[in-house]
């Protein structure tokens, strides 16, 4: 077994057993502890016959093989497998009928080091595995129903002004600066921007292809004059990690260390809302599947309306003399 880091700093785990080699690349935020857990799970899995032969009350680790087979059909296979493998340390200690105790133990151990959303990703893979085992008739009930996810309160949307975006851009390299302004002027995600090729750029619009979007839907974004100069930098000569690092350096130099690249997408939406653009139009620009997703920005419209009414109220108050009362209707 070997654990190592590549040039970009990502952890790798590899093992050879009986002529079979298993190699896994962990996500960017994985820790050495995650790597050791994965190492233990791989060792156990390879040294045991992996044939799916599940009794009525097997160990949770045994039914996880069902999820691992399912993960191969997912778009983000590596990420799905990673979240499932992270449950290995606890999955080998509990049987499916002990799903509630398993979840409580996992949450207790993980909560000091992981956000609720991250823990829920792992719990979700176990719930799916238990549900699949029940659907296949290999367990007497769906024990996944006993696993409850943690409440999440991770929303942290930051809305930047044009001046703030400019401050960050001024501290960025030319490539990163181009990505920043393309994000603001299109509402595109980081991965979508990195995937744009010259063939995707038309005379008056950019095609963001379905394979590069979160919703797997192609969308077309108009090219406005302010965007056109930055298109000369496409395709960007950097990868995901390069842009992530470049933006981090720029935001820290600008004195805004907590701003995320994704906040540029939120800021595009907030600026459009403040300009009076309808939510359905913003939905199409951002590529949301339904306007329900876009309604997260509706509070900005309410704030706008409140400000306007406060100005109106102040103007009316000034026209009423002290002690003067309005007549009853």
Number of helices: 14
What percentage of residues falls in helices of 4 or more residues? 40-55%
Q: What is the class of the largest domain in the CATH system?
A: Mainly Alpha
Give the overall silhouette: globular
CATH H level, superfamily name of the largest domain: Intergrase catalytic core
Percent of residues in beta strands: 5-15%
The third-level CATH topology of the largest domain is: hpI Integrase, Chain A
Tell me the distance between the termini.
Answer: 85 Å
Could you explain how this protein is built, in words?
With 329 residues, the protein is mainly alpha-helical. The protein contains 14 helices and five strands. The protein has helices at 32-47, 60-71, 77-85, 88-91, 99-110, 116-135, 162-170, 174-186, 190-195, 240-253, 262-274, 279-286, 291-294, 298-319, and strands at residues 2-5, 11-17, 20-25, 205-208, 219-222. The strands form two sheets. Strands 1-2-3 form a three-stranded antiparallel beta sheet, with helices on one face. The protein has a two-stranded antiparallel ribbon with strand order 4-5. A hairpin with a 2-residue loop joins strand 2 and strand 3. Helix 2 (60-71) packs across helix 6. The longest helix has 22 residues, at 298-319. 27% of the residues are buried. The model is unreliable at 49-54 (pLDDT under 50).
């Amino acid at each position: 077994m070997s654990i190592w880091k590549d040039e970009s700093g990502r952890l790798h785990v590899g093992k050879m057993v009986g002529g079979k080699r298993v190699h896994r690349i962990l996500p960017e935020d994985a820790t050495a502890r995650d790597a050791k857990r994965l190492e233990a799970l791989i060792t156990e899995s390879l040294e045991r016959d992996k044939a799916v032969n599940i009794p009525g009350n097997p160990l949770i680790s045994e039914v996880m093989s069902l999820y691992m087979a399912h993960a191969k059909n997912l778009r983000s296979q590596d990420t799905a497998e990673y979240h499932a493998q992270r449950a290995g340390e606890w999955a080998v200690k509990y049987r499916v009928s002990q799903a509630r105790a398993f979840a409580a133990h996992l949450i207790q151990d993980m909560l000091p080091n992981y956000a609720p959303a991250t823990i829920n990703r792992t719990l979700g893979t176990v719930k799916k595995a238990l549900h699949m085992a029940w659907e296949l008739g290999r367990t007497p009930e769906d024990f996944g129903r006993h696993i409850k996810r943690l409440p999440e309160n991770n929303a942290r949307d930051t809305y930047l002004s044009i001046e703030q975006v400019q401050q960050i851009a001024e501290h960025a390299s030319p490539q990163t600066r181009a990505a920043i302004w393309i994000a603001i002027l299109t509402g595109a995600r980081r991965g979508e921007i990195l995937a744009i090729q010259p063939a995707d750029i038309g005379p008056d619009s950019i095609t963001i292809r379905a394979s590069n979007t979160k919703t797997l839907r192609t969308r077309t974004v108009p090219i406005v004059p302010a965007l056109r100069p930055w298109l000369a930098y496409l395709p960007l000569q950097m990868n995901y990690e390069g842009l992530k690092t470049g933006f981090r350096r720029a935001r820290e130099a600008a004195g805004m260390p907590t701003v995320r690249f994704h906040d540029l997408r939120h800021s595009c939406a907030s600026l459009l809302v403040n300009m009076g653009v309808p939510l359905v139009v913003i939905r199409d620009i951002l590529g949301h599947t339904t306007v329900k997703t876009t309604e997260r920005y509706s509070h900005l419209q309410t704030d706008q309306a409140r400000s306007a009414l406060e100005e109106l109220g102040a103007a009316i108050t000034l026209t009423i003399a002290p002690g003067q009362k309005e007549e009853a209707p």
